[in-house]
Amino acid sequence: MTQIIDGKKISKEIKDELKEKVSALAAEGIEKCLAVIQVGADPASSVYVNNKKKACEYIGIRSLAYELPAETTEEELLELIRELNGRADVDGMIVQLPLPAQINEERVLLAIDPAKDVDGFHPMSVGNLSIGRPGFVSCTPAGIIQLLKRSGIEISGKECVVIGRSNIVGKPMGMLLLRENGTVTICHSRTKDLRQVCKRADILVVAIGKPLFIDETYVKEGAVVIDVGIHRDENNKLCGDVDFERVAPHCSAITPVPGGVGPMTIAMLMSNCVFGPQ
Predict the structure, then answer these.
(1) Is 113 annotated in the active site?
(2) Can you give the three-state secondary structure of the chain, one letter per residue?
């Protein structure tokens, strides 16, 4: 029987644990605070920002929302970041991506104090992860590790294959699996014989960005499959990078879309804000 990994349930467990922690900190007079900056009114970004505010409210984290007009200059945004960097009452800061064309994304991310980089995107955060030092970890890969651990799935000694080499998911995912003593292969558009490489995997993490790309011919019997993708199919129904209906019968465990990896990203963002670099 295939185990369906319930990301909604696990993310709620994490948020409830964080709620208790924040309550205990409040009893000691310590308040946690997250600053969220959005430039422009991109509809998808607005949904994400709203979800972050709701999560803060549920857990008891104070949230500061900065909703800036689309014509905001790069210097105005950098000035706000500098101000928040200097505020002792702000524990974490995120700048919602994408940014308008007149703003250099890299310059903005570099301007965030690494000690407040709860998204885990700053080069110092990435560098700390790669050499095993404490630091913030990108939220989606961190959430996937929690999904595996809290579902009783052993990582140590397992053959782990990650499809995708993005800075936000693929690369940090590989490093986190390595940190958990997995044997890791990262695949990408130039990988030869992708199907055969995937079929070696005990744990297959798919972040390829192509709807329903992975079918049962890519999956070893009894593998664990984690689907990071999210798309709309021809019927406007949410789907992932994995063809769930075809792949699920061959897995020991699999994440659905929606309700798998997605809910974990905000839960781990909140965890980063509460616990700081780890």
Answers:
(1) no
(2) CCEECCHHHHHHHHHHHHHHHHHHHHHCCCCCEEEEEEECCCHHHHHHHHHHHHHHHHHCCEEEEEEECCCCCHHHHHHHHHHHHCCCCCCEEEECCCCCCCCCHHHHHHHCCHHHCCCCCCHHHHHHHHHCCCCCCCHHHHHHHHHHHHCCCCCCCCEEEEECCCCCCHHHHHHHHHHCCCEEEEECCCCCCHHHHHCCCCEEEECCCCCCCECHHHCCCCEEEEECCCEECCCCCEECCECHHHHHHHEEEECCCCCCCHHHHHHHHHHHHHHCCC
Residue that terminates a domain, selected from 105, 128, 151:
128
Clarify whether residues 250 and 154 are in a common domain.
yes
- What is the pTM (predicted TM-score) of this model? 0.95
Residue 93 counted as domain residue: yes
What domain count does the chain have? Answer: 2
Q: What is the pLDDT of residues 43-83, one digit of tens each?
A: 888 888 999 999 999 999 999 999 999 999 999 999 999 99
- Catalytic site includes residue 52: yes
Tell me which of 32, 52, 158, 171 is the catalytic residue.
Answer: 52
Q: Mind listing the pLDDT tens digit for each residue in 167-203?
A: 999 999 999 999 999 999 999 999 999 999 999 999 9
Tell me if residue 53 is catalytic: no
Q: Are residues 75 and 189 in the same domain?
A: no
